[in-house]
Structure formats: structure tokens, C-alpha cells
Automatic annotation (TrEMBL):
The lineage of its organism: Eukaryota, Metazoa, Chordata, Craniata, Vertebrata. PANTHER family: O-METHYLTRANSFERASE CICE, PUTATIVE (AFU_ORTHOLOGUE AFUA_4G14580)-RELATED. This is Acetylserotonin O-methyltransferase. One of its GO terms (biological process) is melatonin biosynthetic process. Keywords: Melatonin biosynthesis, Methyltransferase, S-adenosyl-L-methionine, Transferase. It comes from Esox lucius (Northern pike).
Amino acid sequence: MAEHLSQSELDYPFKLLEYFNGFRVSKVIFSACELGVFDHLLKSQKPLPAAHVAQELGTSVDGMERLLDVLVGVNILEVELIDGKACYSSTDVASLYLAKGSAKSLHDMIIYQSQTIYPLWNNMVDAVREGKNQNEKTFGISPEEIFQAIYRSEEEMLKFMGLMNSTWVLDGQDVVTAFNLSCFKSIVDLGGCSGALARELSKAYPSSIVTVLDLPKVIQIARQHFSEQDDAIVFQEGDFFDGDIPPADLFILARILHDWEENKCLQLLKKIHTCCQPGGGVLLVEALLFENHRGPVMAQIFSLNMLVQTEGKEHPPSQYSNMLSSAGFQNIQVCRTGKSYAQINLSGC
């Protein structure tokens, strides 16, 4: 490690200290979202003193002022002195990504990180020691029942679906346009959850029929909470492991394979191959690791999250290529978009 550090970093470990405090910065942003800080500042349309924000959101003035000051320090909020009093306002980034009402809001993603991922990561030491997820210790649910843990109540299901919705609102367009998919007239998004990625597909390829296949309870919640008036996508109840998979030209597996151990992934890919129309294919969307184990750090962090939450992991391209080849797929192409969830394998039947 030392050979990669400057002498100034060796003399005083600024970067290490920044990493040590990373969880505190995360929790500041999480807490501000849960309290409604960004929504309130966006609605105000003018800088507000901490006392006003505290009164409206039901917090202590002292606590709110300290929270707002840190948000200013990390460049998420702005502050100015008006008549000698500190008044706070949102930055463009906070208004666009952290307020609930924005079209690109990551609010649901943040709530899930705070209330589900954060508690799981408190048990990271045990996950590393044991080599298994921490759902039992964290939520009292068997480690083998991954999605029973994720969907342990309707409230938790909504949180997870909100996370997925935020993910594809952010990265979906890059995913669906990384390859030209216009030749595929029937597309099935397996485990498509809220339908957010399917909507991006439908917008990019309006002549294609796009179907979301997911568990019955997920589809019911999607129709109730995430459907849109002008939806061009089709929701279909099913179980891609234990039930039938409808035939299609293209199957999407977006952030699916990383949940499961390799044999189960291979079983699913073989099943998809048998359902694939001649000339069809499968599109995998995952966070690809580098072959040399040197990153990307976000994908490495995602892989560690799979350890504490599921039975899977992230892989480098060669691992997915081997699985796809073993399942019968050919002409494997890889595209990295350089963003969190937009690394893709397109493979033909």
C-alpha cells in the first residue's frame, strides 16, 4: 500500500481518515433524507435558517444546525449569512437527486441503504468469518431464504422496489442503448420488479413488446404503486426458477445473477436458452469486476454487499462468459458504460 502513497500521505494519513469517516458522511445524507430536509429546502425556494427547518421537521435546533453544516461541508447544501444568521439552501445536485419530487430522485435508494443495507453491514465481520449472508442475525430470517428476507413485509418490498426503480431511472437509458436492441421484437425482463428498466426499453424501442416477469406479489405491488398511465409494458406473474418462462427474442437479466451461487445461475441460463427464439439472445446487466482484482471499487463493494445479503457475488467478464458458453450461448459481447450498474454482456442463442 505504501508505495502508492505520496510522502505527505505517509506523514499524515488524510485519505485513510477520510475513509474512516465515510460511514458518518453516508449517515448524514441518509438522516437528512429520512427527516425530509431536501424536500423542505426545495419547496421553500429561498434560504432558510436552521431554526425554521427544525420547527417544520420536528427536530432540535442544535441538532438540525449541526446536520445542515455538515451537508454544507460536503457541498450538498449552500449557506449564506442573512442579517448575521446562517441560512441554508439546496444545491442543484441535492434538488435533482435527493428531493423526493425530482424525476431523477434517489430518495428511495437512500432509504433502502439506510434502513436495510446499513444494518446488514454492521455484521460484516461475521459475514467475512462465516462466508454467508447475515439475514438471520440482522432480520431473524433464514440465510437460505434470500428474497423472504428482502420481501419480509409489504413495507420492505416497497423499499426494495423503490431502490430498483431509482437504479434504473439513473442508469436505465445507458443500459438499454449500450447495444442496438431494435432487432428484438419481443423482450422479457426477468425479475423486472417495478418495471423501470422495462420502461426505458419501451421508450428506446417502441416497436418491441416488453414484458416484466416477476413473482406474483411483486407484480401486484408494481401494478399498484409503480404503474404509469401511459405504460406500454406488460406485467406477467411468474417464477423464472420454478415456473415457465415465456418465449421471447431477448431476455434481460438485470442485477439478477449476482444474487445466486454459480450452479443456480447456470441452471437459469440453460433454462432461458431453451426458451430463446432462433436468432434471439440474453442481455446480462451486472457490475463487472476487473480480471486483475484491482477494481472497479464500486463493483468490489457491491460484491461485498452480496456476501452480507445474498448467496451470490460480482464477477469479471470471463466468469459470465464461461457461464453463458456452458449454457449454450454464443457470440458474447461485453460493454462497459463506466457507471454503477451498466456493465453488460449481450449473447446470442
